[in-house]
Amino acid sequence: TINLGGGSALLPLPIDALSLEEEIQIIKLLQSKGANIQELNTVRQAMSQLKNGGLARIAKATTIIGLILSDVIGDPLEFIASGPTFYSGNKNRQTLNIFNKYDLMNRIPAQFLQHLKQYENTNDDQNISSIKQIYNIIVGSNRIALEAAAHLCHQSLNYIPFIMTTCLQGEAREVGRRIVELITTKPSQLIYNDNIACLFSDKSTFDAFQTLRKEHKRYCLLLGGETTVVMKNNAGKGGRCQELAVSAALTIDNNQEDISILLLAAGSDGIDGPTDAAGAFAFNGMITNEDDIKRAHISLDTHDIYTYLSEINDGANLLKSGHTSTNVMDIIIVLVDNKE
What we know:
Blueprint: E1 2-3, H1 7-10, H2 20-32, H3 37-47, H4 54-58, E2 63-69, H5 92-101, H6 110-118, H7 128-131, E3 133-140, H8 142-156, E4 160-168, H9 172-184, H10 194-197, H11 203-215, E5 218-225, H12 240-251, E6 259-267, E7 279-283, H13 290-301, H14 305-311, E8 318-319, E9 330-338
Parallel strand pairs: 1-2, 2-3, 4-5
Antiparallel strand pairs: 5-9, 6-7, 6-9, 7-8
Helix pairs in contact: 2-3, 3-5, 9-12, 12-13, 13-14
């Protein structure tokens, strides 16, 4: 089998206690509350006959090989396509906890809640490993993509590549702001804290970044992962990568001439939200006049950022690559030219 991004959504087969429409509505509710991909896929595992080792369980073959394209932070096999060939235990209690966390218990079908409670301690797959040989191999991931980008940068551009993290998470607009603030703050004034930690794999990577800035004026920062957007009522059209980019553009000080920044935030699948764009760019001078700044803030607040980006600069600040037929999460590329 080939397990890849999109498998969680495209391989449903809900359990008898749920209809497909109910499953879709539950996932939409969780997404609107800002649930991360691990939480979404935990719930999907509890709703499906095929996920969480289900495909391996019902397959006639006794030897199963899963070729994995990871679209989940940290490459956990249980969450990639919700683990059709990897069993990781009963998910019913975790699912109930997630519903409680987002105050959704009264919006979940009663029959499904009853099922979760009734079979909370069931372990249908306890003997699967003694019956079948299952091999799961990761053949594509965000780390592999960033390393390829770093190699290309080193060969083709006059910038020093630096991979900051493959585990980027957080509210998209906050991440965009923090990336620019990190770059524009003098190394001597930077302190490794919670606001900065989300941008790095660990403290040692932050220390290496500090050394990079002291030794090089031109560098290419590479980040990967998956940010989130907490939706509000009457949301417009946009995506997390576009929100990250516009937030970064608004944070860039256009009067600071000693540093040049070009940022691209894009989904590796070529799709950012329900739009035809993979993501968007941010750079010095992108948003300058007061009217555009005001419109940008309103578009972020109403999650209508695609409309805004389509209307300024003839839509040139959007990246439209088309579907790439793969998905290893989002990639953020930042070219920095320090002219000091």
